[in-house]
Amino acid sequence: MEHFTIATVAEQSPDFRRVLWTGKHTQLVVMTIPADGEIGEEVHEVDQILTFVSGVGKAVVSGQERQVQQGDLVVVPAGRKHNFLNTGPNPLVLYTVYGPPEHAEGAVHKTKEEADRLEEEGKDEAPQK
């Protein structure tokens, strides 16, 4: 059995992206977006559910904008353009579930720049299960 005290795990992770668990149909990832940072505008071919643990930010999904904070949850259906921006002075911390998995199993990306580079180099591919 995998068990996480997810808010604590997310709060303690300094990494931009850390894959905690990868299954056949879903993947659990924690993210920490620094002050003035963002995930970056992107489109996935998988569904994504994001739950915010701490900090404040802005969600942009298919051109619609909403403020987000601790306790908020945002659903991004596959194929939708989206971005999440930190609008506060503290890190914006969240966990997200992808269905099916989106990133390499066990991936840890310390910064957005590292995450972007590894994706461009094809080194952050979801496992084929």
What would you say this structure looks like, in words?
Pfam families: Cupin_2. It comes from Paractinoplanes ferrugineus. InterPro entries: Cupin_2, Flavonoid_dioxygenase-like, RmlC-like_jellyroll, RmlC_Cupin_sf. This is Cupin type-2 domain-containing protein. With 129 residues, the protein is mainly beta. It has 2 helices and 10 strands; from the N terminus they run αββββββββββα. The strands form 2 sheets. The protein has a 6-stranded antiparallel beta sheet. A 4-stranded antiparallel beta sheet has the order 3-8-5-6, with no helix packed on it. The mean pLDDT is 95.
Secondary structure topology:
Blueprint: H1 6-12, E1 17-22, E2 27-33, E3 42-43, E4 47-54, E5 56-61, E6 64-69, E7 73-76, E8 81-86, E9 92-99, E10 108-109, H2 112-120
Antiparallel strand pairs: 1-2, 1-10, 2-9, 3-8, 4-7, 4-9, 5-6, 5-8
Order of helices and strands: HEEEEEEEEEEH
| Class based on secondary structure composition and strand pairing | mainly beta
Radius of gyration: 14 Å
The global form is: globular
Largest sheet: 6 strands, antiparallel
Give the termini separation.
20 Å
Strand order of the largest sheet: 7-4-9-2-1-10
**Helical coverage, percent range:** 10-25%
Low-confidence stretches: none
Q: What proportion of the residues form beta strands (DSSP E)?
A: 35-45%
Mean pLDDT: 95
**Count of distinct strands:** 10
Number of helices: 2
Kindly list the characteristics that best describe this protein.
129 residues, six-stranded antiparallel beta sheet
Short description:
The chain is 12% helix and 43% strand. With 129 residues, the chain is mostly beta strands.
